Amino acid sequence: MADSKKIILLEDDKASARLVSTFLESKGYDVRESYEGRFAIEMALKDKPDLLIADVLLPDMHGSEAVKQLRASSKMNDLKVLFLTSLLNRSATAGQETRLTVGGREYPALSKPFKPAVLASIVEKILSGEN
Q1: What is the DSSP string of the chain?
Q2: What are phi and psi of 109, to 5 degrees?
Q3: In this predicted structure, what is the pLDDT of residue 1?
């Protein structure tokens, strides 16, 4: 069981955000949605989530920029991040985990479209410290 780990989902497509949130909530996670990077940053600094799941392309900034800004805060130095995006390199297979480098650090990334079971597995690995 997920024991109510807090997740902030940064996704500008509200329908996609709702689907992912509903799925993760069914797994026992406490999910909060943000549709813009600046609001996700405010939310994360206030709530200190266990995980940030971020899309890359957002209306106000790239998800990678939001991560850089959060990591600059001493409160968020150990922030766990998963990127969900359709903008991964051509070698990334849709629905499979890969890595994305942001600010000199590698983060897990999942290429859209993906299967919910794959997302759940990756989230569990990240939160358990395996990824």
Answers
A1: --TT-EEEEE-S-HHHHHHHHHHHHHTT-EEEEESSHHHHHHHHHHH--SEEEE-S--SSS-HHHHHHHHHTSGGGTT--EEEEES-S-TTSPTTSEEEEEETTEEEEEEESS--HHHHHHHHHHHHTT--
A2: -140, 145
A3: 46
Structural Rg of the chain based on CA atoms: 13
The listed CATH number (3.40.30.10, 3.40.190.10, 3.40.1160.10, 3.40.50.2300) that belongs to domain 6-127? 3.40.50.2300
In the chain (131 residues long), the average pLDDT of successive 10-residue segments reads 82 94 96 96 95 93 93 88 76 67 88 89 93 67
| Per-residue pLDDT reduced to its tens digit, 78-115 | 899 999 887 665 555 556 677 888 888 899 999 888 88
